[in-house]
Design a protein that fits this description.
The protein is 85% helix and 0% strand. The chain is mainly alpha-helical. Helix 2 runs parallel beside helix 5. The chain is globular, with a radius of gyration of 22 Å.
Length: 443
């Protein structure tokens, strides 16, 4: 029973954090759509792969370092945990600062690479240019939020993320609707909100009671031989969002037309909410699984995995039911119905796309579990499969076979193939566990 309580205590704030991140992204879209227009909404969607890519960098370092320091804490190695914590924050800040500078030096090139068209180029350039200086805060804030859970204070994670979301919504309303600053106002609101959450997490770690503390550290560059492989799986889950959105945008422009970008923008918000839910479950159990793995309690790891998969299955079913029964609610949040053809095509596209929601959780949670028990090859194989190896050919070939419907069904095909791959890897893992459990005869 104590494991169930710990599972809820860690997973609930993690999922809440991810939901709030997804929802305030949706609120961004709402204010841009109603305060600026459809082309501006499409421009925000075109910009999302850039944001996802920077976030993926932070996620790789956050999850990898969290796994390493959680195992260290399970092994009572406080020095290693603190060195990993402090070193990683410095590396994250430097890497993302470099990305920000390079972006600002080549805004037009970035906008064109993301697929901006004549009506959207100015909006994409303005949105990315305003958001780029805040990118280090995105990554540092998320790293601190993950480490807060590793420091056994998941409730602080929820406080930081809720504060971030409320700040973003308030500033979105002021900057976009009241001051008329357009997409630049939406970007500024998002960036300032990340600064607020960063400050909150910093204040927590400055307290003397925190398990992990700021301070001098012994440089351990060799740790990244463990951190990077472990973090790549979860980073690729986030990066998959960037790759899929980017590829979808290009295929939609080629197969359907520019108007369908607005439909996909709406769908991508719900898809992000589903993906963040599964990532929240995965990342919620990771510190616990890593801790018990480090302590040699493998039976607890397996129970936590079952809890995670069951929770993911229930959430997946609820998302699918909503998408099939009431897609008009989501579409109506962004479109006022003045263009009935666009509204109806968006509803139809959402119903087709949402079929993949049933499969996402299984793939994401198993990949996260393999990360937590230091099986990076299996984790990375699943994540890479669903991130870019499988979606790209599905997006190329299915539209050839089924036209417009093939575009929206491509995620179902890629997640289904990835599920088969995951089942193969799981079967091999269980065989290895069974062999290790059989005692060797005495010689």
């Amino acid at each position: 029973m104590f494991l169930a309580k710990r599972f809820i205590r860690f997973v609930a704030p993690s999922v809440l954090s991810m939901w709030i991140f997804s929802l305030y992204s949706m609120v961004d879209g709402f204010f841009v759509s109603h305060g600026v227009g459809g082309h501006a909404l499409a421009a925000v969607n075109l910009s999302m792969p850039y944001i996802n890519t920077v976030f993926a960098i932070g996620l790789i370092l956050a999850v990898g370092s969290s796994t390493v320091l959680s195992i260290a804490l399970g092994q009572k190695d406080q020095k290693l945990a603190n060195d990993c914590f402090n070193q990683n924050l410095v590396v994250v800040a430097l890497v993302c600062a470099i990305v920000s500078v390079l972006t600002l030096l080549n805004l037009d090139g970035v906008a064109r690479f993301l697929g901006s068209t004549a009506p959207t180029h100015g909006y994409v350039r303005e949105y990315i240019g305003t958001l780029a200086p805040f990118m280090p805060f995105f990554a540092v804030s998320y790293n601190l939020e993950v480490q807060v859970k590793a420091a056994n204070a998941p409730q602080v994670s929820a406080v930081g993320v809720v504060s971030c979301a409320l700040t973003n919504v308030l500033l979105d309303y002021l900057f976009v609707m009241r001051f008329g600053w357009g997409v630049a106002g939406a970007a500024a609101a998002t960036g300032i909100a990340q600064v607020v959450s960063t400050i909150i997490f910093f204040l927590f770690f400055l307290r003397g009671k925190a398990v992990l503390r700021f301070g001098r550290f012994t440089p351990r560059p060799g740790l990244y031989r463990r951190i990077l492989p472990l973090g790549l799986a979860d980073g690729m889950t986030e990066f998959s969002n960037a790759i899929v959105i980017f590829t979808f945008n290009q295929v939609i422009l080629r197969v359907i037309g520019e108007g369908a970008l607005i439909s996909y923008t709406i769908i991508s918000y719900l898809n992000t909410l589903v993906l963040m839910t599964m990532s929240g479950i995965s990342q919620g159990i990771q510190p616990l699984v890593s801790f018990y793995h480090g302590a040699g309690e493998s039976r607890y790891c397996e129970v936590l995995r079952r809890y995670g998969l069951l929770t993911g299955a229930v959430c997946s079913a609820l998302f699918l039911i909503f998408s099939q029964a009431a897609p008009q609610l989501l579409v109506g949040f962004f479109l006022d119905g003045s263009d009935p053809a666009l509204f109806d095509s968006s509803v139809r596209a959402l119903r087709l796309y949402s079929l993949c929601f049933l499969l996402i959780g299984f793939n994401v949670i198993w990949a996260g579990y393999f990360t937590a028990i230091e099986r990076p090859f299996r984790s990375l194989t699943i994540s890479m499969g669903r991130a870019c190896v499988l979606p790209l050919p599905c997006l190329v070939f299915l539209p050839m076979l089924a036209g417009e419907s093939g575009v929206w069904l491509a995620p179902l095909a890629s997640e289904g193939i990835c599920l088969l791959l995951a089942c193969f890897l799981i079967r091999r893992y269980r065989r290895e566990q069974a062999r290790q459990a059989v005692p060797h005869p005495s010689l």
